[in-house]
Amino acid sequence: MKVEQIYTGCLAHAAYYIESNGEAAVFDPLREVQPYIDRANKDKAKIKYVFETHFHADFVSGHLDLKAKTGAQIVFGPTAKPGYDAIVAEDGQVFEVGNYKVKVLHTPGHTMESTTYLLIDENDKEHGIITGDTLFIGDVGRPDLAQHVVADLTEEKLASHLFYSLRNKIMPLADDLIVYPNHGAGSACGKMMSKETTDTLGNQKKTNYALRADMTEEEFVKELLTGLTTPPGYFPKNVLMNIKGYESLDNVMEKAQTPLSPEEFEMTANATRALVLDTRNPEDFAKGFIPNSINIGLNGSFAMWIGEMIKDINQEILLVTYADKEEEAMIRLSRVGYDHTIGYLKGGFDAWKAAGKEIDTTARVSAQEFADKYTKDTLVIDVRKKSEFDSERVVDAVNIPLNSIYSHLSEIPKDKPFVLHCAGGYRSMIASSILKQLGYENFSDVEGGFKEIALTKVPKTDYVCPTTLL
């Protein structure tokens, strides 16, 4: 049986495609559906089903557009209540795709409708499981997302459901089955998933902490909930879009693909509440940018930081990109539900500069320059995650993770110089652009971040757990 994994690294997302005897099915597609249609056309196959493992939080699925363009039927697992026409399958129900079969295994826990799809080949041999966010390689789905949509679904309740789903539905399956999860390392839907994106179920039973055979329910819940970070703020909004429905991506793109001259761009920015979003690399942004724009580069965890730093999913956006990157930026915004791009700067920042428009800059220093000037009185603000900061840090640095910067502005002085850094320079430039937008001037960020600082003679410390006094 051939299962094609279609992996999108910037979202750490895996969709799946199967085809047999002229019929095809797609599992958990992304918002832009043409690649799936092209894949089926290559096989001269008709997409019969779009299987959804659950209502996704970290991206807007392409199931509705795929149904509209191909006539495929959308399938959810038991208890799902979509706001549009779809099949809500029963536990154990079997769907035929050519000579293949897809069996529904209801596995609540990540969400209540979460479902695993058991793939059965043309010889009636069980081949693998498409697990969605129920089971990852090295991890399982976090159980604390649904309560942001349905308050009664506490993380403890869902963790308990997941414990029994894994033990009653997944672990009894054969060891040679291939596990096909929805995400790999880098996704916020788990806490410690592997860089590997497939594995055998037997190996996961041996190595995945959540599948230990001797684990009690109480131990499982405790281990699962320990170390969970706050989920990105846009997650509940994406869930609701996936439940209720959304505007066709074609319509979203038609409105977004409006080229604006520097004059038109400036007039539109002044006449609307649009946010100017510059998606260039940090090093180029630092040298010159449109005043009050913020920088979230495409060459990084773009979608995640868009969702973290732009709180209003309905925010109007004006784009500044490199040449020929406009469409990519628009699609990647829409993947996470930001459907209100109203235009882009034609010719990019070079056109703005050539038109003699106002330009701002932000200061950067090399790690060596930072080392040369560092003293114990230097205020260093580290915008990495707490776990990164705890692992190793500059002595006396202050940790303000990027996703919490707006709630910690009172700790960032306007009357005293300071230095920002992250791990590699991407997040610190996001922070720099936000602080510049808010009127901060007397600061710089470290090019190359802590990765470069660690190679210098700046005093650093490893985190040491405090000794418990008995």
From TrEMBL:
Coiled coil: none annotated. Pfam families: Lactamase_B, Rhodanese. Residues 270-361, 374-459 form the Rhodanese domain. Transmembrane segments: none annotated. GO terms for biological process: glutathione metabolic process; hydrogen sulfide metabolic process. It comes from the Bacteria. One of its GO terms (molecular function) is metal ion binding. SUPFAM superfamilies: Metallo-hydrolase/oxidoreductase, Rhodanese/Cell cycle control phosphatase. The keyword tRNA processing does not apply. The keyword Membrane does not apply. Keywords: Hydrolase, Metal-binding. PROSITE patterns: RHODANESE_3. PANTHER family: PERSULFIDE DIOXYGENASE ETHE1, PERSULFIDE DIOXYGENASE ETHE1, MITOCHONDRIAL. This is MBL fold metallo-hydrolase. It comes from Flavobacterium arcticum.
